[in-house]
Prior knowledge:
By secondary structure, this protein is mostly helical. Helices cover 49% and strands 0% of the residues. It contains 6 helices and no strands. It starts with 13 loop residues before the first helix and ends in an 18-residue tail after the last helix.
Amino acid sequence: MKRKCPDSPLRLSRTKTKRLLRLSRKVPDVCTALRFLAVVRVGSGLSCREVARQLCCAPSTVVCAVKRFRMHGEEGLWDRRAENGTAKVDEDFKEALRAALLGTPQECGWQRPTWSRELLCLEWAAGARPRCLWPRWEGRSSR
Length: 143
């Protein structure tokens, strides 16, 4: 199903435009900033297709952002995963991943010269940390 930009033009006040632009510069998430910018540009009179070209995104992204803004206002543009629960990756896992990425799969006995997600998963499947990192992790407790 092809998504279409709403027929009635989106009208934004000058203060609302400035606020959305300011928020787009402050948010750390690029996707959220893109939604803010899309709404501002459609609000300035550009078509959804033209805004998508300018922002290098799919037209459906712009259409969805405009629809979310029309339905929920500014609140609709924020990432809806904010209340998604606690993070599933802890600092120990991040540290182990960093250590693994500093090495090569060949150090762990694989033929491939670079890491892939599948290869990292295979390394982690046997235990809590890659077996090739055990010498680097001496003194650390295993989980």
